[in-house]
Amino acid sequence: MLKGHLRIQSLGDQITDDLRSSIIHGQLPKGERIIETEVAQRYGVSRGPVRDALQQLTNEGLVVRGRQGCVISGLSQKDVRDMYEVRVCFEELAMTHIANDPGSIDWRGMDEAIQDMRDALQAGDTNRYAQADLNFHHELIVNSQNSRMIAFWSVIKPLFSIMLQVTNAQDVDLTPSFEDHVAILDSLKSGGNADVSTLIDRHLEGSLNRMIRTMPTLQ
């Protein structure tokens, strides 16, 4: 549920993260109204940070604004499928750029993400694994050097972050996911363009199916 007072630093971002998490976990159900003054009082802040948070959630499609104020719209299965279609397009385009100009690629970010995933897997830390997982895909897209695609990705990345936390927490074994990422990176480095396209498609399809099975708001 919604939490109480937050740190003064980055209030808008903190409120956004908290509301997003509550929506994805189903604690704020579809159709529920959000009243700015009530949220501001609950967090002990002015309406400004709340307004900023609601605007970001509107941009992400989790909230809609109408004459009666803001209403939770949540995510449908179609929404999630659409988001994954976008990811497939983004990541395949990034992969094509990497294959065409491997000398311009900074591999350090993806290497570090793989190591973070390995450490999180060994520690059984699903939240840390989710963050490392997302960092890997972020680095892949950043290496596309396509500024517009990177900007669009930055809008949906926070939403994928909390969605991955939900699904990874339900996975009995994240080893197959880790092995997918290792295979993708190895194929990228070796120039296996066709192979990595197949690997990314399979990996994202598996992630989508797990998400639909495990996210409570999609049932």
TrEMBL record:
CDD domains: WHTH_GntR. Keywords: DNA-binding, Transcription, Transcription regulation. Gene3D superfamilies: GntR ligand-binding domain-like, Winged helix-like DNA-binding domain superfamily/Winged helix DNA-binding domain. Signal peptide: none annotated. Residues 9-75 form the HTH gntR-type domain. One of its GO terms (molecular function) is DNA-binding transcription factor activity. This is GntR family transcriptional regulator.
